[in-house]
Amino acid sequence: MRTVRFGIIGCGLMGREFASAAARWCHLPEMKVRPQIVAVCDAKPEPMEWFSQNFPSIKLATTDYRQILADESVEAVYCAVPHNQHKDVYCDILAAGKHLMGEKPFGIDKLANDAINAAIAAHPGLLVRCSSEFPFFPGAQRIARMLDAGAFGKIIEVAGGLLHSSDLDLDKPINWKRMIEFNGEYGCMGDLGMHACHFPFRAGFIPRNVRAILSKIVTERPDGKGGRAACLTWDNATLFCEAAESPDADGFPLALKTHRIAPGETDTWYIEILGAKMSARFSTKNPRRLEVMEYRNGVQAWQQIDTGQDTAFKTITGSIFEFGFSDAILQMWAAFLHELAEGRPAGRFAGCATPQEAALSHRLFTAALESHKNHATVAL
To answer: Which residue segment(s) compose the domain that 64 sits in?
Structure first.
């Protein structure tokens, strides 16, 4: 089995999730390639201790990411740093000749994203992908197969999004995701938007325009030092788009939500597609359940299907057992490693989000800022 040696830059929550996925790689019995974490980097030494304690393969732990890039044993990098660092760090990773899995949104704004895309174009031999795990849930994969089979017929309407309620606690101290200098003007769109966009974009539902409603619900939070700090980023974004499957095709409504303050939600991703022949919807709020409606003999009735382990990449788990977030992370990383080893994704919806999809999200979010500011529909 081929081993790809990884460095991790940014040892926070998602860095630990990747490391955990690498530790249970034997869960994927048909994979011919595996990751090995050999280097980690964080601005503070403390987060790296967990990695060093649990992964003896790590030979380098540093607060200077350039040391990882200079290490010839490192073939690929997973980078999870604040958005304001994406341009410099991602471009440095590519200049060092390392494959890259980066966190969304691939740049704090469109100018930063353009610079990253220029660096990608200058290094065509490197695999570069954007982290987005939710489309790997079995319910979403089943809908993907329906799309590939043309089961929906003419698309009537599509909705998708990611909903949080973590910021409903008004006493939660502010962090970098609520600071415009680190998170950017996009606010919740930059941090959550690729999750909402990945599946519709991959399906070919391309927005032509957008009318955005953005909300700043909490204007200040505790600063963690006994005082208060202003919250300048958008908490919630609702985007109403006209989308189409090709430039000359009829348009249909595409509604995308990225909400940090969604009462009753902890971490809910959803996709709903209404078609002239069939409709389907899936939400991680009930991760086993896929809802499908086929139109037969004039009858319209939603049916519920339990999906189990119906995954893009085979696992050792029995097909009847439930699937969760850590399983989605494992599937996403299997997709990245498969494409790195084979030169192509295992299938249209069995591949990670691409730089092109990230670039489209930047055009959408930039237009959304203009739309909200001017109370107008903005063309993409």
So the answer is: 2-130
Contact 321, 309 (CB under 8 A): yes
Q: Are 33 and 341 in contact (CB under 8 A)?
A: yes
Query: How far is it, in rounded angstroms, from Cα 103 to Cα 311?
Result: 23
CA distance 352 to 133: 8
160: part of which helix (H) or strand (E)? strand 155-164
331-371 per-position pLDDT tens digit: 999 999 999 999 999 999 999 999 999 999 999 999 999 99
User: What CA–CA distance (Å, rounded) separates 36 from 252?
Assistant: 44
What is the Cβ-side half-sphere exposure of residue 162, based on CA atoms within 13 angstroms?
22
Q: What is the pTM of this model?
A: 0.96
Q: Is residue 282 part of a domain?
A: yes
My answer on whether 173 and 260 are in the same domain is yes
The number of beta carbons lying within 10 Å of the beta carbon of residue 111 is: 11
Whole-number Cα distances in Å, 7 to 77, 101, 255, 271, 319:
5, 11, 37, 33, 33
